[in-house]
Structures are given as C-alpha cells and as structure tokens.
Design goal:
Rossmann fold, about 475 residues, elongated, 4-stranded antiparallel beta sheet, RNA-binding, 17 helices, 15 strands, 3 domains, alpha/beta
RNA sequence: GGUCCGAUGGCCGAGUGGUCAGGCACAGGUCUGCAAAACCUGCUACGGCGGUUCAAUUCCGCCUCGGACCUCCA
C-alpha cells in the first residue's frame, strides 16, 4: 500500500500517515458560514481537500469525508437584520450557491455535509459533558469553556496562554473567569434564533459546532482535520480543547492540515477587508474559468501562500487548452501495464504531502510524450530527463494523463467541448470548407483571408496531416 | 509587542549538501504554401552577511524584506 506523508500542523513536521483504522479513513474539513457568496479564499480549502479525498479514496478502501455547513452564526443574523430577508432563506440560498460554485470548480461533494442547526442537540450534550467534567461553567446565560482547566490548551497553535493574552485585541466580558475563556453557548433575545437549553433559550458559539458534528459523524477521534491556516487559532485550538476535554481523549484529529492563504495584490483576501473576488466573479469569465481556477490553485503547494493574478488564470487556461488539444488528438487505447505505470509515476508526488505542483509538472511530461507520439517529434529529451525508457504508442500517454489528472480533478471533460464548445459551429465549418477549396486551388490569398476572418471571430485554425482542425481562442 | 511562515532566473513555481525541475514569455530551428499546433535548442536562478563543510541555493546564526496569526476570517 502506498505510504502517504503529510505535514502535520500539530507536530509541525512531516510524518507518515497511519490511519486509526486502515479500512476506514475519516476526514473532517471546516466548511463555509453561509451568509454570502463564496470568495476565492473559500475555494482553496475546498479544492485542496477535494484532491486529498480523491487521493485517500485511491489508497484506502473506505473514506468518510465530512464538511459542515455553518448555518447559525451572528454574521448570518446581522445579514438578515440588514436585508430583511429571513435567515432560513439566506442560508438556503447561500448553501445552494456554494454547492453550485464548488461543483463548477470540479469539487466532488463530501460524503456527509452536516449543518450546525441539525446538530444543536449534540452541541448541548457536549456542553453538558464539559460542565460535568469541570471544563465549562455557566454565567449570565452563557456557558464558557475554561481554558485554565485544560493544560494542553495552545498546543495545536503553538502558543501559551500568557502569549495569547499579551497582544489580544479583545474586550474581556465581565462574566469570564479567564480572559481566554470562550463561548460554548450564549443567550438569544426574541429577535435572534435560539433553542431551548438547560441554560435558557440560546444559540451555540462558533467552535462547538465542529466538535459536535465531527463527533456525530466521525467519532470522538478521527484521522485528519483540515481547514484554512487562519482557522488554526482560535477555531481549531478551541475545537481540540472542547473535544478532548469532553471525551478525555489524547487527541481529536491525529493529523491537522492547514492550507495557506490566498492573497490578492499581496494581501489576504477577506470579507472584512472588502478586497475579495467571488468564485462567481471568476466563473463569469467563461465556461473555462472554473477548471482554470482549479488548476491555478493546484499549481501552488497547498501550504504556501498563493497570490492570485488574472495573468495566472489566463496561463492556467492556456495550459488546459494544450492538454485538451493533446487529449483530443490521442486515439483511444486499451489499458496496459505501461499506462498504469505512467499514471502512477505522475501521481507519486501526491503521496509526499500532496505535492500537486510536481504532479502537474509530470502531467506535462506525459503530455509531451503523447504529442511526440501522435503529432511527431522526439521524446528522447523527456525520457532522458525523467530516467524512463517508456515507448508509448499513440494514445497511451494520453490515457495515463487522464487517469492521473482524475485524482487532481482536472482534464476530465470532453476535449471537443472544451475547445469548440459554444455557439453553433456550422458557419465555422463552412468557412473552413471554403478555405480548403481555396487552398486546393492554391488561392493562398483567399485561404489566408478566411483564416484571418475566423481569427477575428476568435477561431484558430490548425492545418495538420489529418486535415484542418479548429478551436476557440 | 508576541508567535509562526516565506524570500528561487522577466513572470509562475518544485526541489536538492556536490550531475536536470517544470511551465509561461522571449530567441533560434524542424515541419508548413505561409501560419498555427507539435517537437528540438537556448535562456544556467536560488534576498544580504557570517558560520559549519572538501563542497551550501540546500544545514546553523544574524540582518533585510514580505505574509499570516494573536478570539469575524478558508
């Protein structure tokens, strides 16, 4: 079995991944708070952990991937007050938008997608456990987690409690015993969503929901917990404290993975800064944009910061154009050990902390191998560089490319649809036929005029030995 | 102020104690009626200063710059 390695935020080291149960791997990722359209930064963990889930499914017999929907939150309440739109309408619409946007980025749905409002009972149960074990206390209608009761608090984010307080930009609520204590449950007035609880009508704090939902769907302890690096503290730190303190366990998730931030113009994209681009903004650029953005995300290692640029998106599109063109040329072939070997080679970098940039580079090598086989040329340079003696016949490297790219969720579409999709193409075909006639008559001026005319319409012609093909620019 | 991360060629972006990343752009070539596409070739980089070492872009220290986090944040 393939040995995966991940950089574990908990230990700050790369380590071998050993599932608690190799027959059933469990993954939890923090999902969106549904009050507004997903921005580019929201998309990064979705795409990154989608690749992780695909990889895990390839390696292990069973994987459960849980990603929550946070549908109770004060930002949602605030949005409802501003707009007058009912909360349930906001969350339902935003959830649907989220699903649509993530599907456009090629992200498969998680196996389970629990909602916070669907797990109020579990949150209350967890809070009761924490009170019973002396890790939480009720005060003025609130229930607070007592960080002083949990010695390991700060271990995940690598800080001690004194440090946390030193530069804290917070007003400490008077009912807190310790400034670091955080809310598990808080009271709701009549205008605010609330549920009956042992502490009166109220609503959960932010962090408790993930502890409750991961517990319900994955158990007290599970393999991997993922999310954005900005969630490391306080969100994940608090989750760990809640879950471990409630269950008396030595860890919550064994491995913690955090994706780096997506920047725009060198600055973190965030709703509070107002400098965010939505996934919709990207998708509006064309039917190619979702997959191009996915490729853009995966061309940078998940733990690094990624500075989004328009030029990068265009470059990603061009790369997909080339890949689909290659796939479109390649003949269909039956499976062979060589195809499997080439695909495995391309995917090999993923086992080392999800090195998608290197896997993509290898995909490009497979593309070159295919092109040299089908279009013509020498594969010697590539084979020499990668130290392989492969001699694929036309179609084989393309098949390996497809198989490997599937794990990245890329290049799975119909090449013809990618290159020639859009409006009715009959006029283009007619123009090409007219040009072929002109060429046959050696009327180069007319042939070139037609070609220029099509180019002005965004149609690029390519004359090959098998005839003239075209694609939209 | 505290904690952490990063700095690679015109741009993007892997990786490594000593032989190659890769892509884009650019230049030349093969092919083509000319192009385009494809293939080939070139473009020999690792922020600064010290240290360890036979050898440092890679390890260590300091510095500079950038970014993230310090209870809204993916």
């Amino acid at each position: 079995m393939t040995q995966l390695r991940f950089h574990n935020s908990l230990t700050r080291r790369e380590e071998e991944f050993r599932p608690l149960d190799p027959a059933h791997v469990k993954l939890y990722v923090c999902g969106p708070t549904v009050y507004d359209l997903a921005h580019l930064g929201n998309a990064r963990p979705v795409v990154v952990f989608d690749v992780l889930a695909r990889l895990l499914r390839r390696v292990f017999p069973r994987v459960t991937y849980a990603r929550n929907i946070t549908d109770v939150d004060d930002k949602i309440n605030a949005r409802a007050r501003e707009s007058g739109e009912p909360i349930s309408a906001i969350t339902a619409r935003t959830t649907a938008d989220f699903h649509r946007d993530m599907a456009a980025l090629g992200a498969l749905p998680p196996d389970v997608e629990p909602t916070a409002t669907g797990h109020i009972a579990e949150m209350i149960a967890l809070t009761e456990k924490l009170i019973a074990r002396g890790h939480a206390y009720a005060a003025e209608g609130h229930v607070l987690f007592s960080v002083g009761s949990f010695p390991d608090y700060g271990k995940l984010s690598g800080r001690n409690q004194e440090e946390l307080l030193a530069g804290a930009r917070i007003d400490v609520a008077p009912y807190k015993r310790d400034p670091g204590d955080f809310v598990l449950w808080k009271p709701s007035d009549d205008e605010t969503p609330g549920w009956d609880s042992p502490w009166g009508r109220g609503r959960p704090g932010w962090h408790i929901e993930c502890s409750a939902m991961s517990w319900r769907h994955l158990g007290q302890q599970f393999d991997i917990h993922g999310g954005g690096a900005d969630l490391l503290f306080p969100h994940h730190e608090n989750e760990v404290a809640q879950s471990r303190a409630a269950f008396g366990t030595p860890f919550m998730a064994h491995t913690w993975l955090h994706n780096g931030m997506l920047l725009v113009n060198g600055e973190k994209m965030s709703k509070s800064l107002g400098n965010f681009l939505t996934v919709q903004d990207i998708l509006a650029q064309g039917p190619w944009a979702g997959e191009a953005f996915r490729l853009l995300l995966l061309r940078t290692h998940y733990r690094s910061a990624l500075d989004y640029t328009e030029a990068g998106l265009i470059e990603a599109k061009a790369e997909l154009d080339d890949s689909y063109a290659m796939l479109g040329r390649a003949p269909a072939v039956s499976d062979t050990p060589l195809i499997t070997e080439m695909a495995e080679w391309a995917l090999e970098p993923l086992v080392d902390d999800l090195n998608t940039p290197l896997a993509i580079a290898r995909l490009r090598d497979l593309r070159t191998l295919e092109n040299s086989a089908t279009v013509g040329g020498s594969a010697a340079a590539v084979l020499s560089r990668i130290g392989k003696a492969w001699q694929p016949v036309p179609g084989q490297a393309a098949a390996a490319f497809r198989e490997a790219a599937a794990v990245l969720g890329l290049a799975q579409g119909d090449p013809r649809a990618w290159l020639q999709g859009g409006d009715d193409a009959s006029a283009i075909e007619a123009a090409i036929a007219a040009r072929l006639a002109a060429r046959a008559a050696k009327n180069w001026a007319e042939a070139d005029r037609i070609r220029a005319e099509l180019l002005a319409q965004g149609v690029v012609l390519e004359d090959g030995p098998g005839g003239t093909t075209w694609k939209r620019a």
